[in-house]
Amino acid sequence: MEFRQLSYFKTVVEMGNFTAAAKQLHMAQPPLSRQISNLEDELNVQLLNRGAKGVVPTDAGKLLLAYADQLIQLRAEADHQVRFLGTAVSGKLRLGMISSAVGVVPNTLATITDYYPNVQLLISESDTYQLIDQLEKHQIDAAIVRTPFSVRHMREEALMEERMVAVVPKPYETGLASRISIHDLDALPLIVYRRFRNIFNQTFFEQGINPFIASYCDDARTAVQLANAKLGVALVPESVGLAYLGIGVTIHPINFAGWRTQVKLLWPKDTAASPLLKLFIQQFHD
Q1: Signal peptide span per the entry (predicted)?
Q2: Residue 255: helix, strand or coil by DSSP?
Q3: How many whole angstroms separate alpha carbon 209 and alpha carbon 148?
């Protein structure tokens, strides 16, 4: 079984017929059909059901397609890692990033591209657990994520620790100090970034309070925008509150040591860090 055959097979399945697949692959149809037939003969199993309207994979074909996707992706990963192992000043860095890292990373990215113009940054944005999954599948080289999370087989570098703040619209400002306590939140309608829901609820339980949760959301930026719209008081990491602060709201640090969060850089232990990734990590020490 060759990578070429797997690629041909994958294309045939995706296109649904040999004619379209051959066109996509820039080859004639008969050689393509022979390659798929050779693959079936080698594996001694029928991979495709052929009909007048096209082809569909058999159960065996569906299984092979799943493995083909993984193998082709791993081959691309190997090529990516080896090709740029010998140089730290060119190549591609595939970086995953949480939206709430907006206040942490941009200056570092700018430094790299300023001094190393041949470096291409491929940035994908997602939540912490999706990024960890992408790291484990070697779909990205490194990820900027936020605690809390549980992970194995990863190296990590702490980039920043920050406190939680309350983004408070004017209607709820009355009587609030510049720094507020957990108990000050009891009388306010809260907008909670769902990432911290369990931590907040545990604290409220331990402190003997039961504040009204006006809204839960899955993005810290959304929480701040809802506060800007005067729907309630958003509880978010300080960097997010500062980055998306609107008119008519103020930021109040929350005086509670238990509500601290770290932004971290993660990369797989089982993959040698390329010089390019090492350069990126080093920027946070300079």
Answers
A1: none
A2: coil
A3: 23
Fold of 3-83: Arc Repressor Mutant, subunit A (1.10.10)
- Is the domain spanning 91-160+262-282 CATH 1.20.120.1200? The answer is no
- Residue extent(s) of CATH 3.40.190.10 domains in the chain: 91-160+262-282, 163-257
**CB distance 19 to 29 below 8 Å:** yes
- Taking the domain 163-257, which CATH number applies? 3.40.190.10
Buried b (16+ CB within 10 A) or exposed e, 13-41: bebebbeebbeebeeeeeebbebbeebbe
Please tell me the distance from the alpha carbon of residue 12 to that of residue 21, in angstroms, as a whole number: 5
3-state secondary structure of 131: helix
CA–CA gap between residue 195 and residue 151 (Å, rounded): 16
User: CA 81 to CA 73: how far, in whole Å?
Assistant: 12
Provide the whole-model pTM.
0.61
pLDDT in tens, 19-57: 888 888 888 888 888 988 988 888 898 988 888 888 898
Query: Tell me: the pLDDT tens digits for 66-116?
Result: 888 888 777 776 665 555 545 445 567 888 988 877 666 666 666 666 666
In one-letter notation, the amino acid at residue 109 is L
